[in-house]
C-alpha cells in the first residue's frame, strides 16, 4: 500500500483536473472511470468483508453510472455529431446524463448505495468519497446546467431532502448519518444548479469544509455509533465542542456558515417564483436537523455530573484536536459573520442609492 | 450601539480566561457596567430612530427591551450561583459564556434595522437557549423540552424567512426604515394574505399564541433558573417586538386575517388563566400565567390602535421583570425544598418570612394592582381592545379576575398553611437573594413614577 | 436513427435491465456490465465508419477502459469470494441496517 498510495492520490488529483479542464464527453468519461478505479483501493484498504462489500457496491453503481454517461454521449454523437458536453442538445441523452450523474452523487431514487458504502469504509476515506469524489459529477452538472430540466432537479432535490431526513430518524450509525446528511446537502446543490450554478458550487464548498471537519472529528474520537458519543465530552471537551459547531453548521442554523447557502438558495428560488419548492426544501431539511440534534444531544448534553449508561472505552486513546480540524471549523463558523455584515451593508447601500 | 454590542461580545472571550475564584464576580460586575452603559441609550424624548450605520439602530420600541435584556444578565448570573455551586469550574465558564452569547444575539435582534439581520439574530438566540435548557436542566426530560422548543420555533420561522425574502424580491430592500415609508401596494389577493400570515406566524409562536404555546411550559419547567428567567423576561418579548415591528408594515387592505387570531388570543388568555387555576407545578403555573399575559399583548397589537405600542411596551417590560422575579422566587423555594409541587412546599412563611414579603410584592405586580406599571400597561391594552370592539371587555375583564384569583392561589398555597414535615429545617435567606429581588422590584417601582420613560407618545 | 444504432441501443438497454434486475451472482452482473460497454464500443465503431472520421481513438479508448473495469470487477469477485466464501450478490448484506 505505501508505494501505491502516491499513485492513487495522483490519479485522483489528475482525473479531477481533467474534469475541470475538459469539455469532451469521452475524455470526461475516461476521467470518471479512472477516478472510480483509483478510489477502490482506498475503500478496500483492509481486506475485510465489509470493506470488500462496500467496494463491490461502489464499483457496481459507479460502473453503471459511467456506462450510462458514455451511452448518453454516444446517443448524442449519433444524433447531432457532437461529443462536446456543452452541446448536449438531444433530450434523451440529456436526461440519461442527468440521471447518471444523480447516481454518481447519490440522489434520491439512486441513493441506496451511499450509506452502505460509507458504512464499510474508514472515516478518512469517507471524507474523500463525500467531498472530492463528488466534485467531478458536480462539474459536469455545472457544465450542462443551462440545459437541465428544472422540474426534474427540483423533484429529485425535494425527494432527496425528505428521504434522507426520514432515513436518518432511526439511524444509529454515525457514518450512515453522515452519508444521509450528504444526500440532504446534495439536494440543496441540485435544486439551484439550473438557475445559479455558481451558487451550487459555493454550497458545495461550504458543505465540503463542514463535513470534512465533522468527519475528521469523528475519526479522532473513533466514533462509529451514536452511543460512543455519549462519553466523548468527558474524553475531549474541545474536540466535542468542535463537533457540535460543525454539526450545527451542517444543519444550517442561522448564525453559522451552513445557513448562508440556504439563504442565498431560497432567495434565488423565490426570484424564480418557485415558492413551494423553497418551502418544501426548508421543511424537509427540518428532518435532517432532527438527527443532527440527536447527535448533538448525545455528544454534549449528557456530560458529567449527569450520569450516563455507557461505559467508558479505556482502550481508545484520548483524542486531541489538531490544526486541520480547528482550521476547518473556523472556516465553518466565521464565514457567515463576515458575509452577513457584508450583505447587510451592501444591500443598504443599494436601497439608499 | 457599538459600545453595548462590543462590550457584551468581549464578555464571551473574557469569561473562559478568568481564574476560578472570580468566575462569577467578574462577569456580574462587567454586565452591571454594560447595563449602566445601556441606560445611556434611553432617551425618551427622542422619538426617531437612533441609528449607528445602516444596519443597526434603536428607537423607542427597541430601547426599553434592550435595556431589559442588559438588566437581566447580571440578575441571571446572581440567580444561578447557588445551583451551579457543585458543577466543575470549566462548566461554570461555559455556562457564563453561553449566557453572554445569548445576550449578544438578543441585543443584535433588538438593534437590527434590516429584516434579514433581524431574522438571523432572532434565530441565533435559539442555539444558546437550547444549550442552556438541554445541558443545564435538572431532569432527563430536558432533552425533550429542548426538541419542543427548537422545532416549534424553527418550523414557524421557516415561513418568516420565505416571507422576508419575498418582500426583498418585491421591494428590493429589507430596511425597516425604508419599508415603513413605502407601503405595499396592490397586495390584496389571498396569496398576500398568506404571505402576511407566514410572517406573523413566527412571532405568534414565539410570544406564544394559545394553541402554539405547548413548548413554553415544557421549556420553563425543565430549564435551569437562568434559562427560565431569560425565556420569560426577554425571549417571549422577541415575539411581541417582532409583531410591533411587522404590523406597521402590513397593508390596511389585509384586515381579514386579524379577527380570528385576535379572538384566539383573547380566548387563549382566558383559557391559560383557567389552566393556571388547576396547576400543581409552580413553575408551570408561572409559565402559563406568562402565556396569558402575553396573549393580551398579542390581541392588542393586532388591533393596531394608537394606544397599543405604548400599552404593549409597558406591559412587556413590566411582565418581563415580574415573571423573572416569580421564577427566581420559585427557584428559591426549589433550592430549599427540592420540589416544584405546590402541595409539598406550602407554609413557607414560617421558615423564610422575608421571602414572603417578596412573594407578596411579586404577586401584587403579577395581578396588576393599581399603582404598578403592570396595571398601566393592562389598562392601556384593555382600553385599546375595548376601542376595537366593546364585547372584548367580557373576556378581558374575566381574564383580569381570574388572573387575580390564580395569583392569590399561588401566593396562599406556597406561603400559607402548615409546613410539611420534610421542610422543617430550611436554610435562611441570603443577602444575594434579597439583592436579586431588590434589583427586580426597583425598576418597576421607579417606573411607577414615570411610565413615559418606556414609551413616549 | 439508423437500424444499427437502434440495435446497439436496445442491446445496451437489455444489458442495463439485466444489471438492475438479476441479483444472483456477481459474475453475471459483471457480464451485463461488459455487455453494456461492448455495445457502446460497437456503436462508436459503427458511428466512426458512418461519419467517415478515420480516427478510431474513441472506440479504442472505450474498449481499453472497459477492459480495465472488467479487470477490477474480476478482482472484486475474487476478493468477495475470499472474504464471503461466495460471490453471490445475495450475500453482500453486511452493511444493511
Automatic annotation (TrEMBL), chain A:
One of its GO terms (biological process) is mitochondrial electron transport, NADH to ubiquinone. Its EC number is 7.1.1.2. Signal peptide: none annotated. It holds the Pfam family Proton_antipo_M. It is a multi-pass membrane protein. Belongs to the complex I subunit 2 family. It is found in: Mitochondrion inner membrane. It catalyses: a ubiquinone + NADH + 5 H(+)(in) = a ubiquinol + NAD(+) + 4 H(+)(out). It comes from the Eukaryota. It is an enzyme of class 7 (translocase). Core subunit of the mitochondrial membrane respiratory chain NADH dehydrogenase (Complex I) which catalyzes electron transfer from NADH through the respiratory chain, using ubiquinone as an electron acceptor. Essential for the catalytic activity and assembly of complex I. This is NADH-ubiquinone oxidoreductase chain 2. One of its GO terms (cellular component) is mitochondrial inner membrane. The keyword Iron does not apply. GO terms for molecular function: NADH dehydrogenase (ubiquinone) activity. Residues 289-342 form the NADH dehydrogenase subunit 2 C-terminal domain. Keywords: Electron transport, Membrane, Mitochondrion, Mitochondrion inner membrane, NAD, Respiratory chain, Translocase, Transmembrane, Transmembrane helix, Transport, Ubiquinone. Residues 22-288 form the NADH:quinone oxidoreductase/Mrp antiporter transmembrane domain. The chain crosses the membrane at residues 7-32, 59-79, 91-114, 138-166, 187-208, 228-253, 274-297, 323-342.
From TrEMBL, chain B:
One of its GO terms (molecular function) is ubiquinone binding. It catalyses: a ubiquinone + NADH + 5 H(+)(in) = a ubiquinol + NAD(+) + 4 H(+)(out). GO terms for cellular component: mitochondrial membrane. Its main location: mitochondrion. Its EC number is 7.1.1.2. It is a multi-pass membrane protein. The chain crosses the membrane at residues 29-49, 61-80, 100-133, 145-168, 194-216, 228-251, 257-277, 284-302, 314-334, 355-373, 393-414, 435-455. Residues 1-16 form the signal peptide. InterPro entries: NADH4_N, NADH_Q_OxRdtase_chainM/4, NADH_UbQ_OxRdtase, ND/Mrp_TM. Residues 112-402 form the NADH:quinone oxidoreductase/Mrp antiporter transmembrane domain. Residues 1-109 form the NADH:ubiquinone oxidoreductase chain 4 N-terminal domain. It is found in: Mitochondrion membrane. GO terms for biological process: ATP synthesis coupled electron transport; electron transport coupled proton transport. Keywords: Electron transport, Membrane, Mitochondrion, NAD, Respiratory chain, Signal, Translocase, Transmembrane, Transmembrane helix, Transport, Ubiquinone. Belongs to the complex I subunit 4 family. Core subunit of the mitochondrial membrane respiratory chain NADH dehydrogenase (Complex I) which catalyzes electron transfer from NADH through the respiratory chain, using ubiquinone as an electron acceptor. Essential for the catalytic activity and assembly of complex I. This is NADH-ubiquinone oxidoreductase chain 4.
From TrEMBL, chain C:
It catalyses: a ubiquinone + NADH + 5 H(+)(in) = a ubiquinol + NAD(+) + 4 H(+)(out). Its EC number is 7.1.1.2. One of its GO terms (cellular component) is mitochondrial inner membrane. It is a multi-pass membrane protein. It is found in: Mitochondrion inner membrane; Mitochondrion membrane. InterPro entries: NADH_UbQ_OxRdtase_chain4L/K (IPR001133), NUOK/Mnh_C1-like (IPR039428). One of its GO terms (biological process) is ATP synthesis coupled electron transport. Keywords: Electron transport, Membrane, Mitochondrion, Mitochondrion inner membrane, NAD, Respiratory chain, Translocase, Transmembrane, Transmembrane helix, Transport, Ubiquinone. GO terms for molecular function: NADH dehydrogenase (ubiquinone) activity; oxidoreductase activity, acting on NAD(P)H. The chain crosses the membrane at residues 6-23, 30-49, 55-79. Belongs to the complex I subunit 4L family. Core subunit of the mitochondrial membrane respiratory chain NADH dehydrogenase (Complex I) which catalyzes electron transfer from NADH through the respiratory chain, using ubiquinone as an electron acceptor. Part of the enzyme membrane arm which is embedded in the lipid bilayer and involved in proton translocation. This is NADH-ubiquinone oxidoreductase chain 4L.
